[in-house]
Amino acid sequence: MSAQAVPNSGSNTAVEGAAALAAVARFNAAFDARDVDAVMAAMTPDCVFEDTSPPDGRRHTGQAAVRAAWEEFFAASPDGVFTSEEVIAAGDRVVARWRYDWGAGHVRGVDVFTVRDGRVAEKLAYVKG
Q1: Could you please report the per-residue DSSP string of the chain?
Q2: Whose CA is closest to 77, among 52, 46, 48?
Q3: Which residues pair with 114 in a beta bridge?
Q4: Contact criterion met (CB below 8 Å) for 42 and 35
Q5: Antiparallel, parallel or unpaired: β 5-7 and 81-90
Q6: Whole-angstrom Cα distance, residue 72 to residue 36?
Q7: Which of 79, 110, 76, 75 has the alpha carbon at shortest distance from 93?
Q8: Diameter over CA atoms, the chain
Q9: For 105, left (φ over 0), alpha (ψ -120 to 50), or beta?
Q10: 41-87 confidence digits (pLDDT tens)
Q11: For strand 93-102 and strand 119-127, is the pairing parallel, antiparallel, or unpaired?
């Protein structure tokens, strides 16, 4: 999921935004490689992932539950590809707009990341339509 990253120039420091962008970039590189060990290394021990399952998504809490969610996702969609459209940092938060393509179609969405201590602590995923 690579795209041009833009730190927010608001009240948060550019250094904080740059650190958050770097943490999300590490996460995304591991995710694009479908390397679950590296994805989990990029996340905090108490990480949270909310997926896009209707109607409100499922919440996965902690390393074991989040790992299981990624393993299930990668197994179910071996040919899926995420493409980042835009990535914006605001302090310890990063918002990424993306498109997910698979053989029969695509969907667009947004991820809201919270970064703590250089790792992703929370990833909340939302989709259009």
Answers
A1: ----EEE--SSS-HHHHHHHHHHHHHHHHHHHTT-HHHHHHTEEEEEEEE---TTT--EEESHHHHHHHHHHHHHH-TT-EEEEEEEEEETTEEEEEEEEEETTEEEEEEEEEEEETTEEEEEEEEE--
A2: 52
A3: 93, 122
A4: no
A5: parallel
A6: 11
A7: 110
A8: 43
A9: left
A10: 999 999 999 999 999 999 999 999 999 999 999 999 899 999 999 99
A11: unpaired
N residues, the chain: 129
Residues in contact with 16: Cβ distance below 8 Å, sequence separation at least 6, in sequence order: 91, 92
Residue type, 53: S
Q: What is the pLDDT of residues 19-43, one digit of tens each?
A: 999 999 999 999 999 999 999 999 9
Q: Calculate the CA 52 to chain-centre distance.
A: 12
